């Protein structure tokens, strides 16, 4: 079977697909379980596998299509299926994280708690691709690709983690990301469907054009503003981290930095360095150079360790603790390099 579905054919297909069936619910539960394990074990490959088998995309596409042609039956079916799937997903993921012995916040979990404007752009681009792919009669990899790119499964599972552990930041941050993905995939489907429909007897969109525009624009603004603020904050944080890294690496090249702590609350960088004493003139020069690294607003505090025999007992204890941390860090880096070499050799074999 080749070609594309007509608007009428595609509507009938969605009518048939959008039902709460036992088999679809079991598939969803399996996908949620797999995604939760992937997030818990910090495994990207496992998470991607869960996204490929998830049925969460269908009701979102159906909702966008239903709004585009203003089909109340399709809108109602889509919302019913979507709410059921979200509820099942939250319950299954919360149950998993409640019984799991691993409760630490993995990087995969943390990544789903602070949505940015880039998540909005990904959802829009994915939604547009999904409109085209879902209308094709022949099998294609567009819709599975959209499911991976927009990542509907990980945020809903992360919300389940927040629910199970009483972590409000994880719960609402992940739900916000899930809402962004749902809304902007839906909006892309509305626009894409209207473009693909051209002249169709199914549309009564003109009568509600103004109301729908006001509602959609309001929703877009409410979702985009926090994501934009988060993106600006993230960009500034990354720029500051890179600036600090270059600053410490170049300006303290002749010293050994055994401890480096950035205190975001006070915007303060505390360095503990070993080596020749740094004079007041040199310190002033170092402070002046901060501007060239874009960290002129960061308060710099330097703890110098140049003669351990003159340290009091507390400073001596702190000194040796920092030395031990420094040694552990270097050993860890060396082990990581060895593991990487072994993996490369194994790949060659």
From TrEMBL:
Entry keyword set: Membrane, Transmembrane, Transmembrane helix
Membrane-spanning ranges: 20-39, 45-70, 82-104, 116-133, 145-164, 170-191, 212-232
Listed PANTHER family: AT15442P-RELATED
Protein name: DUF389 domain-containing protein
């Amino acid at each position: 079977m080749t070609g594309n579905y007509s608007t009428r054919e595609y509507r009938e297909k969605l009518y048939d697909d959008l039902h709460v069936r036992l088999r679809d619910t079991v598939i969803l539960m399996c996908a949620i379980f797999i995604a939760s394990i992937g997030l818990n074990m910090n495994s990207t490959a496992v998470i991607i596998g869960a996204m490929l088998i998830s049925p969460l995309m269908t009701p979102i596409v159906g909702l966008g299509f239903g709004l585009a042609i203003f089909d109340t039956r399709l809108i109602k079916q889509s919302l019913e299926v979507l709410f059921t799937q979200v509820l099942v997903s939250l319950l299954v993921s919360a149950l998993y994280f409640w019984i799991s012995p691993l409760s630490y916040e993995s990087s995969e979990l943390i990544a789903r708690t602070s949505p940015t404007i880039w998540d909005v752009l990904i959802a829009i681009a994915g939604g547009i691709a999904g409109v085209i792919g879902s209308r094709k009669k022949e099998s294609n990899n567009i819709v599975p690709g959209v499911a991976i790119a927009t990542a509907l499964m990980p945020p809903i599972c992360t919300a389940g983690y927040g629910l199970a552990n009483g972590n409000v930041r994880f719960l609402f941050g992940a739900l916000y990301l899930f809402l962004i993905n749902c809304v902007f995939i839906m909006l892309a489907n509305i626009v894409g469907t209207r473009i693909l429909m051209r002249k169709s007897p199914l549309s009564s969109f003109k009568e509600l054009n103004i109301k729908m525009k006001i509602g959609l624009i309001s929703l877009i603004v409410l979702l985009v503003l926090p994501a934009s603020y988060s993106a600006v904050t993230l960009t500034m944080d990354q720029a500051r981290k890179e600036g600090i890294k270059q600053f410490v690496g170049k300006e303290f090249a002749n010293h050994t930095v055994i401890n480096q702590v950035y205190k975001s609350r006070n915007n303060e960088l505390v360095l503990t360095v070993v080596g020749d004493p740094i004079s007041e003139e040199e310190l002033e020069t170092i402070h002046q150079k901060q501007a060239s690294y874009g960290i002129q607003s960061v308060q710099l505090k330097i703890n110098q360790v140049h003669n351990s025999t003159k340290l009091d007992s507390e400073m001596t204890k702190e000194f040796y603790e920092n030395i031990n941390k420094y040694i552990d860090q270097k050993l860890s880096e060396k082990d990581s390099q060895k593991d990487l070499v072994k993996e490369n050799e194994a790949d060659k074999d």
